[in-house]
């Protein structure tokens, strides 16, 4: 007949029931100090959000349960515990190196990793990821720039390879999601470009953690949100908070009005900027010309900031500037998240020469989503760069 274990003391059962109410603990070891289980001690190796090596004493009778720490807590009440920090290995292409360095400077949890970008004699990519085995089990991100078709192919080679290296998760950071060569989204070429690129990215292999996450900023048309397949999880961010922070630093921050060059820009951004007085412009055709007129709002005596998602040739922004100046604006500035400026079209924008809005802009803010543009306009008035580094670093922790 098999031997049966003696029943546990009621005090032990009570303590066990009490301890079962704790939900945030990891496996612990128990060592018994006597045969009757009247007293024992256990050590919790890792208490979630608490320093390790906490001791718990379970005593018999009505004595209380003691939770003791061998050393005082050094964690600040408002600081995040180390266990909550997501460590990320950030790869980048040559074009985004400067932005990647700024992102890494934002957080100690982001570690830069490089790729050897080489080509064979026939021009095809010859890429090498140093210490590829070293990223197994890590959270990996890649900072891309699809500024031209010539660089998209080689970056796709890396983007498709990284998730296959037994990594824990993969995030693609593409600050500017290209939509084609025209500012008019109704052009069929733009729709085809955006849809094709979204479908290509939707076929990125899944990592051990699941589908790829895509981080992008101020996508050009709202319908593009639905172009992605189920194998990619798009995270849509905005550069508008950077603009709002910069506007608060201006000496005339209490005299700001926001102008939208068309109804599309108003739909995208007016909710984020609704606490500012609003001016809406629109384009009208007179003969063979398209001109910009103020549809609603008053620019007289105000520092008016034109807001849009992107600029290419800049014709619409210049016409909007002229219309605002003609209607009495004291200053005119502009903000776009993506300064594309093909063929050096940024040179069309002049500085206003200390408050003459008819001659140019007081400020022209752009982000560093298009690295080539940043290199061209840096330190050239009226341009001023608002970096996405902090926003990207925060998005990588999601």
Question: Would you kindly provide a written description of the structure presented here, covering whatever features stand out?
Answer:
The chain is α/β, with parallel strands linked by helices and 398 residues long. It is built from nine helices and 19 strands. It has helices at 10-19, 97-106, 149-161, 188-201, 240-247, 263-269, 315-326, 371-377, 389-395, and strands at 29-32, 40-44, 54-58, 66-68, 88-92, 110-112, 116-119, 125-128, 139-143, 169-173, 212-217, 232-237, 256-260, 278-286, 289-296, 303-311, 331-339, 364-367, 383-386. The strands form four sheets. A seven-stranded mixed β-sheet has the order 15-14-13-16-17-18-19, with helices on both faces. A six-stranded parallel β-sheet has the order 6-5-9-10-11-12, with helices on one face. Strands 1-2-3-4 form a four-stranded antiparallel β-sheet, with no helix packed on it. Strand 5 (88-92), helix 2 and strand 6 (110-112) form a beta-alpha-beta unit. It is elongated and about 65 Å long. The model is unreliable at 11-40, 44-60, 64-80 and 181-189 (pLDDT under 50).
Short description:
The protein is built from 9 helices and 19 strands. It is α/β, with parallel strands linked by helices. It folds into 3 domains: 27-67; 86-237, Rossmann fold (3-Layer(aba) Sandwich); 241-387, Rossmann fold (3-Layer(aba) Sandwich), CATH 3.40.50.2020.
List the topology elements.
Blueprint: H1 10-19, E1 29-32, E2 40-44, E3 54-58, E4 66-68, E5 88-92, H2 97-106, E6 110-112, E7 116-119, E8 125-128, E9 139-143, H3 149-161, E10 169-173, H4 188-201, E11 212-217, E12 232-237, H5 240-247, E13 256-260, H6 263-269, E14 278-286, E15 289-296, E16 303-311, H7 315-326, E17 331-339, E18 364-367, H8 371-377, E19 383-386, H9 389-395
């Amino acid at each position: 007949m098999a031997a049966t274990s003696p029943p546990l003391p009621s005090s032990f059962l009570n303590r066990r029931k009490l301890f079962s109410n704790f939900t945030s603990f990891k496996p612990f070891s128990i060592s018994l100090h006597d045969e009757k289980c009247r007293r024992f001690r256990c050590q919790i190796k890792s208490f979630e959000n608490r320093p390790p090596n906490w001791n718990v004493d379970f005593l018999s009778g009505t004595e209380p349960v003691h939770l003791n720490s061998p050393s005082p807590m050094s964690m600040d009440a408002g600081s995040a515990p180390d266990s909550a920090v997501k460590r990320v290995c950030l790869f980048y292409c040559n074009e985004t190196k400067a932005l990647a360095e700024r992102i890494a400077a934002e957080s100690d949890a982001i570690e830069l990793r490089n790729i050897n970008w080489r080509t064979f004699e026939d021009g095809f990519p010859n890429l090498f990821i140093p210490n590829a085995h070293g990223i197994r089990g890590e959270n990996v991100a890649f900072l891309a720039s699809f500024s031209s078709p010539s660089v998209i192919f080689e970056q796709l080679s890396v983007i498709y390879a990284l998730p296959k290296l037994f990594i824990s998760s993969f995030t693609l950071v593409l600050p500017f999601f290209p939509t084609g060569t025209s500012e008019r989204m109704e052009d069929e070429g733009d729709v085809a470009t955006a849809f094709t690129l979204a479908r290509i990215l939707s076929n990125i292999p899944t990592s051990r953690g699941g589908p790829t996450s895509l981080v992008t900023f101020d996508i050009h048309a709202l319908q593009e949100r639905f172009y992605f397949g189920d194998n990619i999880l798009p995270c849509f961010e905005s550069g508008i908070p950077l603009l709002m922070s910069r506007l608060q630093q201006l000496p005339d921050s209490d005299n700001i009005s926001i102008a939208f060059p068309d109804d599309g820009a108003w739909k995208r951004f007016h909710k984020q900027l609704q606490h500012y007085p609003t001016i809406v412009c629109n384009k009208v055709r007179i003969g063979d010309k398209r001109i910009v007129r103020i549809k609603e709002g008053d620019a007289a005596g105000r520092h008016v900031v034109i807001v849009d998602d992107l600029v290419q040739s800049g014709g619409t922004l210049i016409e909007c500037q002229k219309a605002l100046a003609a209607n009495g604006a004291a200053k005119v500035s502009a903000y776009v998240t993506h300064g594309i400026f093909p063929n050096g079209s940024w040179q069309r924008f002049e500085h206003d020469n200390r408050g003459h809005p008819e001659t140019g802009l007081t400020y022209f803010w752009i982000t560093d989503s298009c690295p080539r543009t940043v290199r061209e306009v840096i330190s050239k008035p009226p341009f001023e760069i608002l970096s996405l580094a902090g926003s990207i670093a925060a998005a990588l922790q999601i």
